[in-house]
Amino acid sequence: MNFQRTVMNYHSQLVQAHRDYQIQQGELHLQFLQQRELALKEMTAALSTSAGTSERLHPFQPVGPSFSRAELEVLASGKVSGILGSRFEAQDKNAHQVRMPKPPLLFADRVLGMEGEPGSLGLGKIWSETNVSESSWYLHDGCMPASLMIEGMANPVALLMSWLGIESHNKGERNLRLLGCEFMFHESLVKYNTTLTSELTVDGHAHHGDTWITTFHTDCYAAGQKRFTMRKGQVGFFTAAELIGSRGVNWDAETARFHADARRDAPAVVCEHRSFTKEQVSLFSKGRTAECFGTGYEAAFTHTRSPRIQAGKMLMIDEIECFDPQGGPWERGYLKAKKAIQPNEWFFLCHFHNDPVMPGLLQFEGCLQAMAFYLAGLGFTLDKDGYRFDPIPEVLYDLQLRGQAPPTAKEIIYEVFVEEVHGGDEPKLYADLLVTVDGLKACYCRRMGLRLVKMEDGREG
């Protein structure tokens, strides 16, 4: 009997070992299939990009030097002369020089060409491409966020200005800052499996003493369609003292003009809250609308994909200090949100090399998230399961950036001054946006528009 029991136990162990082996092999095979699928997708995307270039899916005709992604990463933090040539050796010793951001905020995957005499401080053009893939870290509901789209379209001006010789003026003592632009989205936000091709043109330079300002414009295409326009772009080159001495944006909500007769629909729900904690904001970023807003928002419990803002490191709001649909200096609606800045924020590590500063477009991102929160607070997302927030297209918006948020900054305040509200089938919000960094008015956008649009298949729109 003991022998029989021993045999049966041994048999059971063999069966279990075989099952474990089958499970392990199954998991390995699944990993193989997943890796093969990813490789096929990347190959297809590469072939699509190559075909798109040959079929002229954009109106540009790039000329001059081109650079790979690997070369762009060297230019973002390494020895510039190793890529641009020996005439740039003099700036290699400078700890501070004009560069594009490092990953993950380096959005260009390749530069197709550059036009302009190197070192001339003249005019020029740069053509670049960005692959928005299914694995892109920044995707939100299958799309590239509006703020990062603008950031990506402005970044190449840094490389072009380096090529044109701005370091001969800066001498390692000045850093680049985006001062503002006018921008327009065409259609909805860009979805994954899209290659963006852009042309950035330096229009001119102005300088008074050592202060140097460069103006530029950008056009961006995807699959033969124009997707984004930037006009009146401005970058300046400033010393540390000049940046600290900035006077900020010259705008005051108390005296500002607004359309007092603009449409302003009543909320679908009267919210019981006038402020929201960090936990409640986090719930909203995860699509848990009913838990965030409470009584009156129970319909959101039935949602499979509630409209939401970015979570994780792209969540730019800590808490909502004031939510008042009747408040604000215009008495048309107001929201105030804030974010505590930590010296180890992820964006300081990549924007820029030896010049850590929060991108102005991430400040703007915080405002867009505040606008989305406001629309949801009005109850306009409750019958919009499977929708997402999008900038209202075919409108030229004016964005001003006049202050920075370095690692020493303590707090950012976002304010939404409501001008116009639409409920109904396509809820919309128009508002003036103001960002304040430690008391300095750093970012302002006049009459920004945000809407709710339906996603296809619950992921993309």
Automatic annotation (TrEMBL):
One Pfam family here: FabA
Segments forming a coiled coil: none
SUPFAM superfamilies associated with the record: Thioesterase/thiol ester dehydrase-isomerase (SSF54637)
Protein name in the entry: Trans-2-decenoyl-[acyl-carrier-protein] isomerase
Domain of life: Bacteria
Signal sequence coordinates: none
Source species taxonomy: Bacteria, Bacillati, Bacillota, Bacilli, Bacillales
